[in-house]
Amino acid sequence: MAEPPSPRTLAWLNAAGPEDAARGLDGLYEHSPWIVEAAVRARPAAGWRSLAGFKHTLVRTVDEAPRAAQLALIRAHPELAGKAALAGELTAESTGEQARAGLDQCSPAEFAAVQSLNAAYNARFGWPFILAVRGPRGLGLPRQEILATLERRLAAQPAQELAECLRNIHRIAEIRLNDKFGVQPRLGEAAWDACEALAAYSDTPWAERGELTATYLSPAHRACAKALQAQMQAAGCDEVGLDAVGNVVGLWRGSQPGAPRLLSGSHYDTVRNAGKYDGRLGIVVPMVALAALRRQGRRLPFDVEVIGFAEEEGQRYRATFLGSGALVGAFDPAWLDQTDAEGVTMREAMQAAGLPGTLESIAALRRDPAHYMGFVEVHIEQGPVLHGLGLPLGVVRSINGSVRAVVELQGVASHAGTTPMGSRHDAAAAAAELLLALEQRAAAVPDLVGTVGQLEVPGGSVNVVPGRCRFTLDIRATTDAVRDACYDDTLATLAAVCERRGLGHRVTPSLRAPAAPCDPVWQARWAKAVEALGLPVHTLPSGAGHDAMKLHEALPQAMLFVRGQNGGISHNPLESTTADDMQLAVEAFLNLLEQLAPEETR
């Protein structure tokens, strides 16, 4: 057998037999060469087009393996800072990874904590705790973060934790594979670093707790805007500025003045105690892509306008999509007189930030659709779908339309001990019945979701049959017709339940937002951009709202989702993605730009 090249190459991988590939990639998965062997046997007839494609085949191989093989793979891994590490019995790969995370430098107290948590974890699940200790950037996680993660995951359910262990094993293998192939995701690292830099600006008191919060026009929000402008300038934007609502606008000039331009971006405000990537990833990905073109000395035949929208979350004022709404003429004049929790009007906040705070200046921000090709937004998924499929990217089909309402049920408050079950008018029991009915109704239709997010018994007592119950409804779907049908059926079920139980009810609608189907042409462009990376194309709806929903009112729009870590959690400090997935997002964005450029300009 010929020695494999060092570093390994895709050509070698596509030519190697199963055993040769396993030998050449020894140590990729701890003591489990069968994974590489099985993946090579499943190699596409034309070979893998990219290392990312091979990584996905590895994930599929493990996903399709029997549960016994999955458990054996997990149990082949050593405990962190465990007995094997102390005895020097780790593989070279594990030794280096644990050392990079500083686990060989634990203090006596840290070591004791790790040993105690390891024992508790193994007793609960029957396998060792697995964590990719080199982390999302590949630099190594702090020891305290490792300890906190171990403690947090102790509370997980076994099925969830087994899946999380396998996902971490794949992340470990991804980093090891990069090392063997001499690959470094430099564009993804640049995006990761940019998000990290923006996360340095946080409101009081969250900053003092090490948490991220940046609400509209707060000092932290304004500092973040300034940092964004600096990042845009460094990326090579020809014009960078702050507009009348606080949007950060960067313009990258093309070679053909007057050609319709591409618009991209997302929001840089956050929810309270947020993650670092919601919104902001969609600003830095196009910036990193444009910076790459600049280094190549490239100019596209069209302008690219990147916008960091100042507000999308509605945290300080009840004015969701304020930043993107201004571009489509959807800024409500009444917003200027809204007050925040401290009694500061939006107009006052704008003027304190050096913005005009006038309707005239805001109206001037409206874009002429004739000057734009469309709007594209890259966003962390904010959900578990891509995470569960082992896919780094997904193409969004539609942004769900939503309807919300507050429901109040009126029954009879009576003694819990003396009121027979057949004589009760229990408002909470009726709410529970409706909640389950909504769950079943939504689960029966693809891409439809229904949620009761708030549920309370006002003035309730442990020994009183609930006489009142208040709850919220949130129903979303990719089309308004599907959403409205579920809403109507839910209200009909509500009426029937209340009549049968002898209750009154009142429904107060609170929101109705139309669905925003992504433009088919732009969807196809995203799909082609992902396919060019050698990855399967998966389409999915977005259940969350995005700035693309507002731009949809004036321009064709389409979105690309990037996989999140930690179960895809978002609006949470655990929100995360990896430099490798960000790399693929930047490359997909570059592929999209290439599709828009005539052949002679490439």
TrEMBL record:
<dbReference type="GO" id="GO:0051997">
    <property type="term" value="F:2-oxo-4-hydroxy-4-carboxy-5-ureidoimidazoline decarboxylase activity"/>
</dbReference>
<feature type="domain" description="Oxo-4-hydroxy-4-carboxy-5-ureidoimidazoline decarboxylase">
    <location>
        <begin position="14"/>
        <end position="178"/>
    </location>
</feature>
<keyword id="KW-0659">Purine metabolism</keyword>
<comment type="subunit">
    <text>Homodimer.</text>
</comment>
<dbReference type="GO" id="GO:0016813">
    <property type="term" value="F:hydrolase activity, acting on carbon-nitrogen (but not peptide) bonds, in linear amidines"/>
</dbReference>
<keyword id="KW-0378">Hydrolase</keyword>
<dbReference type="GO" id="GO:0000255">
    <property type="term" value="P:allantoin metabolic process"/>
</dbReference>
<dbReference type="InterPro" id="IPR018020">
    <property type="entry name" value="OHCU_decarboxylase"/>
</dbReference>
<dbReference type="InterPro" id="IPR002933">
    <property type="entry name" value="Peptidase_M20"/>
</dbReference>
<dbReference type="InterPro" id="IPR011650">
    <property type="entry name" value="Peptidase_M20_dimer"/>
</dbReference>
<dbReference type="GO" id="GO:0019628">
    <property type="term" value="P:urate catabolic process"/>
</dbReference>
<dbReference type="GO" id="GO:0046872">
    <property type="term" value="F:metal ion binding"/>
</dbReference>
<dbReference type="Pfam" id="PF09349">
    <property type="entry name" value="OHCU_decarbox"/>
</dbReference>
<dbReference type="GO" id="GO:0006144">
    <property type="term" value="P:purine nucleobase metabolic process"/>
</dbReference>
<dbReference type="InterPro" id="IPR036778">
    <property type="entry name" value="OHCU_decarboxylase_sf"/>
</dbReference>
<dbReference type="InterPro" id="IPR010158">
    <property type="entry name" value="Amidase_Cbmase"/>
</dbReference>
<protein>
    <submittedName>
        <fullName>2-oxo-4-hydroxy-4-carboxy-5-ureidoimidazoline decarboxylase</fullName>
        <ecNumber>4.1.1.97</ecNumber>
    </submittedName>
</protein>
<dbReference type="Pfam" id="PF07687">
    <property type="entry name" value="M20_dimer"/>
</dbReference>
<dbReference type="InterPro" id="IPR017580">
    <property type="entry name" value="OHCU_decarboxylase-1"/>
</dbReference>
<keyword id="KW-0479">Metal-binding</keyword>
<dbReference type="Pfam" id="PF01546">
    <property type="entry name" value="Peptidase_M20"/>
</dbReference>
<keyword id="KW-0464">Manganese</keyword>
<dbReference type="InterPro" id="IPR036264">
    <property type="entry name" value="Bact_exopeptidase_dim_dom"/>
</dbReference>
<feature type="domain" description="Peptidase M20 dimerisation">
    <location>
        <begin position="400"/>
        <end position="486"/>
    </location>
</feature>
<keyword id="KW-0456">Lyase</keyword>
<comment type="similarity">
    <text>Belongs to the peptidase M20 family.</text>
</comment>
